[in-house]
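User: Show me a protein chain along with its predicted structure.
Assistant: Here is one chain, sequence first, then structure tokens.
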Amino acid sequence: MPEQRVLLAALLLDLQSDARDRAARSWASRKTMIAAYWSAVAVYSGHLARCLGERRGRRPRARFELVQEGFPDLVVTGWEAASTTYSVRREECGLGARDFPRGTVKLGGIAIAHVSYNGRIWPRHEWEPNDMPIYDNRGPSRDCG
């Protein structure tokens, strides 16, 4: 059970970081209601993460890892680094989509997502037509809300 607490706390801290970025973009584009929403999300996700984390004020130290068959497991700094590392491996190998193995992103040793051939990171379940990637390497979204 403690590893699930660490995983949840790490995901909440990731949400906090993403919410802060979205709030800043919304403030910059004068979308005040959306900015206020994302600011609140950042605050509450941070509070929840601290409640789930260790009691001594330490943040959980869950590691992002990129795991891929035929390659050494690598510790990465986050979604973007996992996508970039996967894409570099793909380019160096020169294999097509059928032959190049799919990557798995683990957080604290627990598989949480997979990396598709194009470098996008998706939830672990099977892809469905309306699914949105967790991380899209095509660049930032134009929608701040």
